[in-house]
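Example record

One chain of 200 residues, shown exactly as stored in the release files.
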Amino acid sequence: MKTLLQLNTSLFSEQGQSTRLAQRFVEIWRTLNSENSVIVRDLAKDPAPHLTAERFQAFLAPAEERSTEQQAVVAYSDGLIDELRRADVIVLGLPMYNFGVPSTLKAYFDHVARVDVTFRYAENGPVGLLADKPVYVLATRGGAYRGTSKDTQTLYVQDFFNFLGISDIRFVYAEGLNLGPERQHASLAEAEAQIGRLAA
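Predicted structure tokens for this chain:
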């Protein structure tokens, strides 16, 4: 049995285009083996708190010296990391907001990047501590930015997962969704066709 972690980051939760594409991937993936399990983390319904100095200090404090509040902060982070570790496959629904990733995704990233937990510093730089696994990123954009300087998402998401030790990252783009109904329909249809091939 395999486990898939579905990360939804759209402000519109299940109604977001990126979430719908992620859900389509999961539906196809589950048909291959009904015993597969899916963990859904919806960052619109249950957003990760933005990182503060207090939360960051909780991560750095020795376990035996943490206050009750710090223990709760670390336990929350540990739970997110445990989901990443358990997952054999990650599916990330990724809308573009103002040329960047949703702030809730950045907050989530800040809680799963933990020194000596998901990465460590070595002589030649940081080393990721998570096992490699496929990450499918379903990127939806109102405009068309792939391959341009305005696409700040692709490299950032690749770099972050690489930082944790995950290098198998595959993008499906649905762009131009605000450039008229014909463009939207064609872009979503092409994305769904790609999803069908990848999920199977």
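Notes: The longest helix spans residues 68-86.
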